[in-house]
Amino acid sequence: MFGVLFPNRSFPMDISTFAQIDTFHWILDMNTFVGEAYDQVREMCIFLLNGFTLPPDKALAVYVQSPGSPFVFCGAVSIARPSAVLTLQWPEPGGQMQLTSSDSAPLSAKIGVSVEDLALLPSLDVTAQKRIEHLALKVGENLFNFMQSFCSVDGSRLVVPMDILDRWFKKFQEKATKDPEYLKVPDKSLEGRWGS
């Protein structure tokens, strides 16, 4: 049905590497793959295998779970997008890190793959969506800081010069041109649809 590859860390692996939970859910226990260093695995390529037909309204969604945390959505593949390199944004570990019984294993990090309705998933390009959000935040923060350096207080109002936006935009363009990395930062994940 699908295969995965961890760039610079693995050969291509097929679905047999994952434990099948039910007809539509598979889990990869990261302890068996990399032990406690799961958070160093930052990318995963997932692809549909040749000959596998996924209905056009379905997708294979990918989630990650740190020990004791809920699953977080990372992205998906579909017939229209049969492969993707996804950024794995591991959530902070949480919950009870203790054993639930004397013969239980400690909680471990997991990657989950599930068949889901394409229309119900967040944007398949989570990375691009988060970059846009980050860009908007960086621009807003830069504008606020620039305006703050020129404003005065009149009662409960901030007063700024009339040409402040023109001056800010020129300065912002110069900064972005000199430092292309200025607007780039690691993405944050969206909460997933799986329970903990």
From TrEMBL:
Ranges where the Hikeshi-like C-terminal domain occurs: 132-184
A cellular component term, taken from the record's GO annotations: nucleus
Domain of life, per lineage: Eukaryota
Domain Hikeshi-like N-terminal per the UniProt entry, residue ranges: 20-119
Any one GO BP annotation for this protein: protein import into nucleus
GO molecular function: nuclear import signal receptor activity
Family: Belongs to the OPI10 family.
This protein's name: Hikeshi-like domain-containing protein
Species of the source: Protea cynaroides
